[in-house]
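S.,

As promised, the zinc ion run. Input:
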Amino acid sequence: MHITLVTGDNPGPYTGAGNNTYLISGETPTLIDAATGNASHLDALASALDAASLAQVLVTHAHPDHADGCDPIAARWPAAAFCKMPWPERDSRQSVEFRSIADGDLIPAGSGVLRAVHTPGHAPDHLCFFDETDGTLFSADLVILGSSVVIPSSRGGSLALYLDSLRRIRDLRPARMLPAHGPVIDDPGQVIDGYIAHRQRREGQVVDAMRAGARLPDAIVERLYQGLKPELLVLARESVSRASDQAA
Ligand SMILES: [Zn+2]
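Predicted complex:
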C-alpha cells in the first residue's frame, strides 16, 4: 500500500502533537480519519492527493479529533464517502451521512483491501483497519507510544472491553501499527503486552488505594497520579472511576 502521513495540525492537551491521518493512494484514494478540518490539513491532503479525487474517508471513531474534519472535507471533496461504525448520538454531530461499517467488513482502499476490526474500549465505535497482505494495522487510539490511552467511562469507555481489544489485536500479529497519535509502532506485540501489564498494574494500585481507605475517585487519583497536569486530571479521574467500579 502506498501510504502518506497527513498531519491534522491540531496539537493540544488531548491530542499531543496533533492527529495523524493517512492517505492510501491507488484506485480508491482513501483517507483514514478526518482530524478536525484545519485549513492546513486540507491543503496537505490536497497536495498528497496530487490531482486524484478523494474516494472515501474511513473514520476510526466519533471523537471530535477524528471526526470533526468530515464536514470540511465533504465541502472540498463532495464526491467522497464517509464510513464508520455507527454511534448514532455522536455521529449526528456531523452533517455528512455516514455509510456503516461492521466488524470484519472488507473495504477496498488504495489498490488493496482493509479489514475492519471492531476494538471497543476507548470508544464504543472504535475500529482498526488491517491490511492482511503486509500486516499494517491502522490502530487509531488503541495504543500511543510513550503514553497511555484514556478510557472515558462516562462517555462510552470500558476498561474490560479495552483489554479484550488489545488481546484481539495482539492475536492478529500486526507487523506494524500506524496510530492516530504519535510515531509508527514497529513492535506491536511488545507494546501491546506492555499496555496490558500497565493496565493490570493500575487496577492493582486502585484496589490497594481502596484497601487503604481511599473511596472516592478524587482520593484515588491523588494517590496514583501525583504531579499530573491539571487539565489531564479529569481524564485520570475517568480511568480510575471505571477501575474502582470494577474493583468494588
Ligand atoms: Zn479518541
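The CA atoms of residues 3 and 24 lie 5 Å apart. The domain at 2-187 is CATH 3.60.15.10 (Metallo-beta-lactamase; Chain A).

- D.
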